[in-house]
Amino acid sequence: MTVIAGNLSAAEVDAAMYAVHRWEPDNRNHLFKRDQDGAGVGAVWPKCTRGKPIPQRTCFPDELSPELGDDRDHSQDCRSCFPTGSRQPWRP
Ligand SMILES: [Zn+2]
C-alpha cells in the first residue's frame, strides 16, 4: 500500500484519488481514478477492473457521466468498487 500522508485514512485517500461516475456500459456507479487518462489509449475503465484483463467494453473519457456526489443512488453502486456497507469515503 502506498502511503500518501500520515494522517489520511485509506478511505480518505480513496476519496481524494477516485471519483464516482456512472458507467454507461452497465449503468452502475463505479470509481474512476481522477487523473486517469487512459494511459495514452484514450479509454478509461473503473477501479474494479484495474489489474484485471481489460473488459470487452471500456469507455472514452467523454462518455463518463458527470461526477456523482454522495446523494447519488447508492442502490446502483458497484459492489466491487464500494465494499458492502461502506459509504464512509464519500461523506462530505
Ligand atoms: Zn466497479
Note the main attributes of this structure.
about 90 residues, mainly beta, two-stranded antiparallel ribbon, 2 strands, about 10% helix, about 15% strand
Commentary on this structure:
There is one protein chain. This protein is mainly β and 92 residues long. The protein has a domain at 10-72. It contains 1 helix and 2 strands. It has one helix at 10-17; strands at 18-23, 28-33. A two-stranded antiparallel sheet has the order 1-2. A hairpin with a 4-residue loop joins strand 1 (18-23) and strand 2. It starts with 9 loop residues before the first helix and ends in a 59-residue tail after the last strand. Bound molecules: zinc ion. Residues 30, 46, 48, 78, 80-81 line the site of zinc ion (ZN). Zinc ion (ZN) is lined by residues 30, 46, 48, 78, 80-81.
Task: Give the gist of this structure.
The chain is mainly β and 92 residues long. The protein has 1 helix and 2 strands; from the N terminus they run H-E-E. Bound molecules: zinc ion (ZN).
- Measured by DSSP, the beta-strand proportion falls in 5-15%
Q: Taking strands numbered 1, 2, ... along the chain, how are they ordered across the largest sheet?
A: 1-2
**Which descriptor suits the 3D outline?**
globular
Largest sheet: 2 strands, antiparallel
Structural class computed from helices and strand pairing: mainly beta
State the share of residues found in helices, binned by percent. Answer: under 10%
N- and C-termini, Cα separation: 24 Å
The overall average pLDDT, rounded, is: 76
Strand/helix succession = HEE
